[in-house]
Amino acid sequence: VYNAPGESGMADNLITISESEFARQQTKYHINEKHRFNLSIAPTYAFRTGDDLLIDGPFDPALDEGRLFDIVSGLEYQLDLLDNRLQNIAFVKNYSQNIRIESLDPSLDEVSIDKRSVNNFGAGNGFRFNWSNRFSTKLSYEYAYRLPRQDELFGDGQLIVQNLELRPENSHNFNVALTYESKEYARTSWTLATNFFLREINDLIFLLVDANDFGAFQNVWSATSTGIEFNGNITNLFNGLTLSGNLTYQNYRNTSDTGPFVQFRDDRIPNTPYFFANGGAEYQWNNIFQKNDRISTFWNLRFVNAFFVGWESAGLQQFKQEVPNQTIHNAGITYRLKINGLQSDLTVELQNLRNAKVFDFFGVQRPGRAVFVKLTTQL
Predict the structure, then answer these.
(1) Distance between alpha carbon 303 and the CA centroid of its chain, in Å?
(2) Measured distance CA(116)–CA(178) in Å, rounded
(3) What is the pTM of this model?
(4) Which of 34-48, 134-148, 197-211 is least confident?
(5) Distance CA 64, CA 62 (A)
(6) E-only strand ranges, 106-167
(7) End-to-end Cα separation, the chain, in angstroms
């Protein structure tokens, strides 16, 4: 095999090795029924390296070793008043990230080390009031950070290249949620909810794809997202049938006054869905073969409206790359058995029944028709 240019550039025979470990720890302390504290710590470690088998010698960029270590920790205080009709949760968070890249410098014939660390704090407050047993309102605000993930920093070794200069997002997030529920102990229970949201974002992380279909995660210096969500579900509509659905519309715009993308001010953020919906149905049969067993069949539908890959104001409309409308059907069956406190679930699921071409982002294609089998056991 010759290392000559092809449809996707130079030929390669690339092996990418990724490892990740994470842990979650929570500690709760109840002063009394009205006051409680919750401390959470979530460390994550990721390692990335590779090998291009078509490159002889030590100067193989794929051999670079990338290490990523994150710790997100938070402390929250919960206050319950008026017989739990009023609840307030105030919290602070710390976001810490350490990045280390080791690469062989061909000009110096030695290993160069590039390191970067960030440490930021966020805070917020959530307020909920139950007007009655059926109607409640929730208001929340959070100043938050989102740390870049391993794939966003180091790429995927194929169509997404690395960007080691990627900065964490920080945002002001506002939410107003309304929830209306059926009467307590009703045979058929249901919930209707809506949420209005506003996000003011600095250094938004998004995937930008070039004309050669190669992408890299970039920062937009300023962006705003406003939108609305609807969701609802009906449980035990008749003889064990449950229906659910949700819908989201978001107006996600570039509001940068400066920086590399200022010329696309007021454009939608590229390569990002702005309208999507999900729906599902589940039917259950209990005590089929023996006491305490259950069979449930399920079906769900996912729809994503078409969206542009690049900036909407760049180029002529008829020549723009676009991720088309996507409609995905999944179906499956689960058998649950409980014996002496031990619960086991066996699920067989057929995803993408119509074998449609579907994408998370341009160049990040999801599987076609596939069968998955999962067995879980818990005490």
Answers:
(1) 17
(2) 42
(3) 0.82
(4) 197-211
(5) 5
(6) 110-130, 135-146
(7) 54
Nearest to 180 by CA among 226, 234, 227, 141: 234
Contact indicator for 205, 219 with CB cutoff of 8 Å? yes
Our CA angle for 143, 146, 152, nearest 5°, is: 160
200 falls in which pLDDT band (50, 70, 90)?
very high
Nearest to 199 by CA among 177, 174, 220: 174
Shortest CA distance to 212 belongs to which of 363, 322, 61?
363
Which residue type occupies 17?
Answer: I
For residue 296 the two structure tokens come to: 């449930």
Closest to 206 in 3D by CA, of 119, 122, 310:
310
Instruction: Find out whether 108 and 119 touch, Cβ atoms under 8 Å.
Output: no
What is the DSSP code string of 172-214? EEEEEEEEEEPPTT-SSEEEEEEEEEEEEEEEEEEEEE-TTS-
Asked if 358 and 365 count as a contact pair (C-beta separation under 8 A), the reply is yes
Our CA dihedral for 200, 205, 206, 211, rounded to 10 degrees, sits at 130
Position 8 pLDDT exceeds 60: no
Structure tokens at 185: 């102990």
Q: Give 41: exposed, middle or buried? Use CB within 10 Å, 0-12, 13-18, 19+.
A: middle
In this predicted structure, the answer to whether residue 302 has a pLDDT above a threshold of 80 is yes
Sequence-separated (6 or more) residues with CB below 8 Å from residue 149:
none
Confidence band of 96 (pLDDT split at 50, 70, 90): very high
Using the structure block, give the residue that is written with the tokens 């008749």: 238
Q: Is 151 helix (H, G, I), strand (E, B) or coil?
A: helix
Task: Quote the pLDDT of residue 361.
Answer: 65
Q: Which among 6-15, 121-130, 287-296, 366-375 has the top mean pLDDT?
A: 121-130
For the cut 70, the answer to whether the pLDDT of residue 247 exceeds it is yes
Token pair in block for residue 101 = 């890249």
Query: What pLDDT is recorded for position 357?
Result: 86
**pLDDT tens digits for 303-313?**
999 999 889 88
